[in-house]
Amino acid sequence: MSGKVCPVEDINEQGNRNKDEAQISMKALDKSGNNDRQSINSSSIDSSQAGGAKLGKELVENKLIFMKWIFGALVMNLVLLAILLELNSSSGLLLTFFGELFNAASPVILEIWMILCFIATQKAMVSGAAAYVGYLITKPEGYSLAACGFVQSSVFEKFSFATKLSYRSTSRNFLTRLSYLWIIQSVSIILPLYSASTLSSSDYREYAGSLGCVEYEETGNPFDRQWPDLYAEMGIGELIFGSSLGIMRSENNVDNTTFVIAPQLVDTANDGTTIVGNGFVSTVLTSCSCLPTGNVTYLVDANISSNIASTMSQQLLAFSSTPGMVNYIYMDSGSVKIVTLLSGTNVCGSTSASLVSYPICKTTISDHFHASISTTFMTDGSPASIAPKIVEILSIGQPANITWIYFAIKSILGGQVESSTALPATYRGCINPLLWWTSPNMEVVNAALLEAGVETLFSILGRAGAQRSFTQTAATCVQSIINTSYVVLTISETGFQLGLLFFFSQLVMILIAIIGTIPWLQSKDPISPGIRLAHDHTFFTVMVNNTIVSLFGINSTMDTPLVWSRFDFGVRIGEEHQTRDDPDLGHMIMDKPKFVASFTKGKAYY
Fold first, then answer.
1. For the purposes of burial, counting CB atoms within 10 Å of the CB of 543, is it exposed (0-12), middle (13-18) or buried (19 or more)?
2. Separation between Cα atoms, residue 253 and residue 243, nearest integer Å
3. What are the residue boundaries of the structural domains of the chain, listed by start?
4. Where are the stretches annotated Disordered (predicted)?
5. Confidence of residue 15 (pLDDT cuts 50, 70, 90)
C-alpha cells in the first residue's frame, strides 16, 4: 500500500489486490510467546493520522502553538486588568478615536471584551485538561479512557459526564472535582453584566487660551471686607444654581455635600465658556432633630455653654412663629461645627399651643483641600448676565487651613460665634431663598429635605464668606473647550471591584491550566499523541477503532453514559514492544499498560 507502513510480511501484495481493504485481520504478533492478548495493527492509519511525524521533534514552537489559548487568555485578561485600572484612575481612560461611538457604546464594548476573555479562559482550561490527561494516559500505569470523553464534552456536560461514571471508577472522583472548576468559571459570566453597566463617559476638554479671573488664596490672615453680607446672599439665592456650588446632596444622590470655592471670572465670556483654575473643596454634613421649647439642657449637650445656650433659646422664642435661624459656630477637632435652630418651619409640630418643638441642625464642615476647579458659565450675551452654572472638581491637592472657613462663615453670620437672623419671605407665598433647597416647591420646608437643604445653605454662605474674607489674587485661568472626537471613560467603584473579581477568577483558572501543562513540558518522553487523543475527536475515534475497545460490543442503541462507562478502564498509548529495537520506525498502539512501552524521541510511528 502506497504511503502505508505495515510490519506484516507480504501485506503489500494484498494491498495491491484490494486497496479498499485497509484493516488487517488480527494476528498474534507477540513473538515472545505472549498470546494472552489481542492487538489490532494500525495499517489503516497513515503517518499523518497516527502521529507519523517524529515525536522526538516536539519543538518548543509546537508546544507554544498547542498552548495558544492559554497564553491568549492570559494576555487578554491582563489587557482587561489594564483597562479596569485606567478606568478607575482619577483621569479615567482617554480614547482619542471614535469618540462618539465609545460615548454611546462603551458599556457594550467592555462587556463584549470581558465575554471574549471568558471564552478564551474556557478554551485555556480545556487545553490544560487535555495536556494533563494526555500525560496520565502515556504514563506506565495508564489512565481511564473515559477521561478523554470528559475533556471533549461541552462545558455544561462535564459535571454530568463525571457523575454518571460508575462509582467503582478510579477516575470518577478526580473528574468530578475537576468539573467544579468549569462550574465556578461559568458562574463568573454574570460579573461582566454588572461591571460593564457601571461604565460612564464624559466630555474631553482641551485648553484654548486664557481668561482673566480672581483666585482665592489662604495667605497671610483672613480679612473681613464687610461684603457680601447675609442679606445680599438671600437675593443671590434666588439666582444661584446648586450645580455652581459643588456637589449638593439636595440635588444629587450622594451621602453628603461637597462645596467648592471656585475662581471668579472677570473677563467677558460666551455662553458655555469653561475656565480652569485653583480653588478649594470642603465636605458638609448636617443632621437634624427636634428641640423642645426652651430645652437649654439639650443645647448644652451639643457642646454649647449654658450661657450661650440660654441666649440662643431666648432668641429662638423671640422669633415665635416667624421664620428665622439662630446659629452657634465653633472649631472642634479640625472641623467647623455649626449648631442651627430654625423657627417658623412647622417641621417638628407640637402637642399644644404652649409647647412647640423647633428643628435643631448640627452641621460639620471638614476635609478642606486645595483643588483644581473647572467652572462653566452661562450668559444671555450681556456682560452683566455672566454667572457660574456648573463647577467640577478636576483634582484634589494638599490639605488647606480650615480655620479660614471658620472665619469666613463666622463673618458672613455677623462676626460673632452666636448670631440670630430673620429669614423673611421675599415673594408672597414663598419661603426665604436660602431655604429653597429644603422645600420641593419653595413654599414650605419639608422634613425629608431639611438636612440636605441646610447643607446647601451653608455652602452658599461658605462661598460668600470666602469672597468676603479670603485673599484675592488676580490670575489668568485657562479656557477649555470640549473636543467631541475624544471621550473619557470612567467606572464606578462597585463596577471596578466586580471587574477585578472577574479578572482574578479567570486568572486562577488560567494558572490551573498552566499547572496542568507542566508535566508535559517537563516530560523526558514524547507524550503529544496522548494529548491529541484527549482533545482531538478524529484521532480518538481512529485509535479506538484500532484497539481492544472495539471488542466490547458497543452499539448505537446504547445511551451515551453507558457508552463512556464501557470506555472507563485503564489504557496506555505508546509504542508496541516488538518495534522498540527499531531505531527509526515504531508502531503506535493503545492497549493495556503492560503491553505498551513509552514513545522514543527521534522515531517515526505508524
1. buried
2. 13
3. 59-195+491-605, 216-261+281-367+401-474
4. 1-22
5. very low
